[in-house]
């Protein structure tokens, strides 16, 4: 089980350490290689964190939540975000370091990057709040035999920040795709003096097709199953969650509401 307090403490520590790391030793003014070196590190870290790991975390939640109990799909989802956290912080720190040296605070790439970084911390807070708030629909609430069945749609049973967490994450993935492309088509040629490899462009094109197809495919194939499970939990709030089973048998075996003849 993920310790949310530990996760929050680590996130706070990295948030404090990142600006300090960005104020490290200055880049030698007589060496263009240093510019290329630090720009490459910044690009790889931010692309790995925002463009690869965050979408993978979203896809993990999208597919596993339809088959596994809350704590079992939350673990892999949160673990991927935890791996992305230091990678993004390192990339951001290096980016700030380069921006300070070059005076690039007013260029669009820097503004979008700063916006993404701030959005990322808001997303972490939204995720921690969602995971720590008991919800019968999500399956992380304690069984309550005295609770009345809830016939609302599962979306209406979620707190507002849980819905915002999902839309915020998708928005970040879209922005990150644009930002990565701007990085290797505009910023990198300015530092390196030559365009990025065509392999980079092909990889970007492939990834921006693969991720939406997998995500939308998961919605089309599994969203009805997910809502069916959540409705079943809401109609039977006194049932114990199946935390030790591969599938959420409580959700799949609970009775459904049948319409009464008028």
Automatic annotation (TrEMBL):
Record's subcellular location: Membrane
Keywords: Electron transport, Heme, Iron, Membrane, Metal-binding, Signal, Transmembrane, Transmembrane helix, Transport
TM regions (residue ranges): 41-61, 82-100, 120-139, 160-184, 204-223
Cofactor(s) demanded: heme b
Signal peptide: 1-22
Membrane topology recorded in Swiss-Prot or TrEMBL: Multi-pass membrane protein
Main location: membrane
Descriptive protein name: Cytochrome b561 domain-containing protein
Source species of the chain: Thanatephorus cucumeris (strain AG1-IB / isolate 7/3/14) (Lettuce bottom rot fungus)
């Amino acid at each position: 089980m993920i310790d949310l307090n530990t996760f929050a403490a680590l996130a706070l520590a990295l948030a404090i350490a990142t600006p300090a790391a960005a104020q490290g030793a200055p880049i030698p003014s007589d060496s263009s290689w240093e510019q290329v070196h630090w720009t490459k590190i910044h690009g790889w870290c931010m692309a790995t964190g925002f463009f690869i790991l965050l979408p993978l975390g979203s896809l993990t939640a999208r597919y596993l939540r339809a088959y596994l109990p809350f704590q079992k799909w939350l673990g892999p989802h949160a673990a991927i975000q935890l791996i992305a956290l230091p990678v993004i912080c390192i990339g951001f720190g290096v980016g700030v370091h380069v921006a300070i040296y070059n005076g690039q605070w007013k260029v669009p790439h820097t503004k979008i990057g700063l916006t993404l970084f701030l959005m990322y911390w808001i997303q972490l807070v939204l995720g921690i709040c969602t995971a720590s708030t008991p919800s019968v629909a999500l399956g992380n609430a304690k069984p309550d035999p005295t609770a009345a069945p809830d016939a609302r749609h599962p979306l209406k049973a979620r707190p507002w920040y849980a819905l915002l967490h999902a839309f915020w994450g998708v928005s970040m993935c879209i922005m990150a795709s644009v930002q990565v492309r701007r990085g290797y088509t505009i910023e990198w040629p300015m530092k390196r003096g030559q365009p990025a490899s065509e392999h980079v462009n092909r990889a970007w094109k492939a990834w921006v097709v693969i991720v939406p197809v997998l995500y939308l495919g998961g919605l089309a194939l599994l969203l009805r199953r997910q809502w069916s499970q959540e409705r079943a939990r809401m109609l039977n709030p006194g049932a114990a969650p199946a935390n030790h089973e591969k599938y959420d048998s409580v959700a799949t075996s609970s009775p459904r509401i049948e319409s009464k003849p008028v």
